[in-house]
Each structure stands twice: as structure tokens, then as C-alpha cells.
Amino acid sequence: MTADLVVLITIGALTACGVYLLLERVVSKMLLGMILLGNAVNLLILTMGGPDGKPPILSGSDASPDDMADPLAQAMVLTAIVITMGLAAFVLALAYRSYMLTTTEDVVNDPEDTQVASRRELEDPEQ
Fold first, then answer.
1. CA distance 49 to 75
2. Nearest Cα to 22, choosing from 38, 7, 6, 10?
3. 104/12 Cα distance (integer angstroms)
4. 21-54 tens-digit pLDDT
5. Which residue of 22, 45, 99, 121 has the smallest Cβ count within 10 Å?
């Protein structure tokens, strides 16, 4: 099975941009990174699903299964789109609530988490 080089480069670029945006400390950039990463995975699933073919369900068809399209990849992508949109809505709700409470979009370190991390470093000096 051969894949189109342009599609593979697009998948790589979307994945790289998505991971870069996920590592930011701003919630809106994290959300965009999750959406980009979800789109890259959807493209990858469709690419790995194989080439286009005839519809998988035909009444009275005598076509060989080699000529038919694989419906599993399309069903997985539809499910992934719904999950990505639900996750995006959840993150938007969290971002809105966080903005209303702190009036900033930046994710800051929790002081208690910083104290726990410093205690862990003091307890384990060999690392």
C-alpha cells in the first residue's frame, strides 16, 4: 500500500504544530493544539484505511472484496470527530470558568504542587 507523500507531510506538520501548541501555557493555544492533533490522527486513520473503492454494501453485488472500500476507517474517524468536539467543548467550558475566576488565560503553577515537588527533590538527592 502506498500513501501520498503530500498527505504524510501534512499529517507530520499538523502533529508537530499540535504538540507545540499543547506545550504552551495558554488554554486557548492548548485547545487549538488538541484540535490540530485530532485532525492529524483522523487524516492518518483515513490514509491507513487504504485507497478509494466501491461502496462496501451493494445489493446483489458480485464485486470482489478487494475493490471495496474499508468502512471501518470512516466509522473510526466519525467517532473521533465527535470525541474531539466533545473534548473541545469541555476545555472551552474549563477555560471560560478559569477566566471568570482568575481573569487570565495563563496556566500557572499551583503553590502546593511546587512545595510537593521541592520536598520530593529534598527527599531523593540521588537524582
1. 11
2. 38
3. 32
4. 999 888 899 999 999 999 999 999 988 887 777 6
5. 121
2 neighbors 47 (Cβ within 8 angstroms): no
> Which amino acid is present at 61?
S
Secondary structure (3-state) at 25: coil
Query: How many other C-beta atoms can be found within 10 angstroms of the C-beta atom of residue 11?
Result: 19
Cα(117)–Cα(47) distance, integer angstroms: 43
Rounded to 10 deg, the angle between the 27-48 and 5-22 helix axes is 150
Q: What is the pLDDT of residues 67-112, one digit of tens each?
A: 777 788 889 999 999 999 999 999 999 889 988 888 888 877 788 8
Please give the biggest Cα pair distance in the chain.
Answer: 73
Residue pointed to by grid coordinates 490514509? 47
Written as nine digits, the cell of 112 is 502546593
Give 65's DSSP letter: G
Residue 81: how many CB atoms within 10 A of its CB? Answer: 13
State the alpha helices, DSSP H only, in the chain: 5-22, 27-48, 71-102, 111-123
